[in-house]
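Before a colleague's protein record goes any further, I have to sign it off. Thanks in advance; the entry in question is below:
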Amino acid sequence: MANKFLPSVLQTIAYFVSSHGLGHATRSVAVINDIHACRKDIHFLIVSDLPYLFWKKNLDPAILFDTYQLKTDIGLLQTDPLNFNLPKSVGMISQYLSRPVDYYSKLLISMEKYNLCHIVCDISPLGINIANYLGIKKSLVENFTWDWIYKPFIQKHSAFKEICLKLGEIFSTVNLRIQVTPFCEKVKGTVAVKPIHRRFQLEPNCIRKKLNLKNSKRIITVTATGIDLYTNLKEFVKHSPYHFIFCGEHKSAEADKNITLVSTNDSIHFPDLIRASSAVIGKVGYGMTVECWAAKTKFFGIMRENFRESEILKDFITKNQIGEAVTLDQFTSSGWKNHFHEQLKDSKKVIASRENGNRNAAQNIIQIASG
């Protein structure tokens, strides 16, 4: 809930969330919820460019929090959901890293009204720089850092070498570094935790009722922002024995006996929809991969071939036998659609839950913030 009390009365944790991909935000939600479960007297200031509605929908209603709208890092400048522009990215990252902390004077002034006890960053270097400027302890939560992502690009653009060195120095200053499975590169002196994901709320039969699904067809959830999967799947869906849930914006999609459309602002908790599904088709990213893993739902992911994290997530998907990661070209082929049917034919879900790293991460952050 929005903060109804004088902020200076409560200790505040500022949480800086990367602007690159929704997985950083869903992971941050999970950690914040568990910090609150352990310490209900902590208020949160979430610095992110995601809308307030996202946080309100996903955080425990009892949590006191405020948001500050700001793009907290650059990542890579994407030309579409699966590709990016390296030359433009170099320029924007260099400019971003050259800004002094007082460039963010409005944020600093806004933070003065809070009794800040700690800053947590989900791979945003900005939060770390501000913590260093303010003399506040800081934690980093990551499954990769940007210097690791950028290193292979040095051969193409030499400016990335200086960028990587600068980022490496920033990330090395944190008091606590939590590496979340599946992490991309093990770093000495860090705390490794199991996958972090949003918790489930409703049982699968409740989700079917909310979706008004009266038949017993198995659910396939389709979600990939910016990729027109409906056009590729239209004929496949028509003759499929499954019921398809298309999430987000699919301008050409129409509800049918085999199709239900679910908007981004729908009241259904997305992890619950994943758990109610037999399979999810979507873009490979940390959040989607781990939430399918937690739900024990088959995941057929479309991967970014030129993004270094993708191979790590692909290995995690394969090792844990939760599905497979394919390229967009493979996805659009008729052979893959036949393979999809075969993969689901004998798929049976195991109800037992998997152990996550939410509480472990939260307790480590609380300990360092209280010390």
About this structure: The longest helix spans residues 23-38.
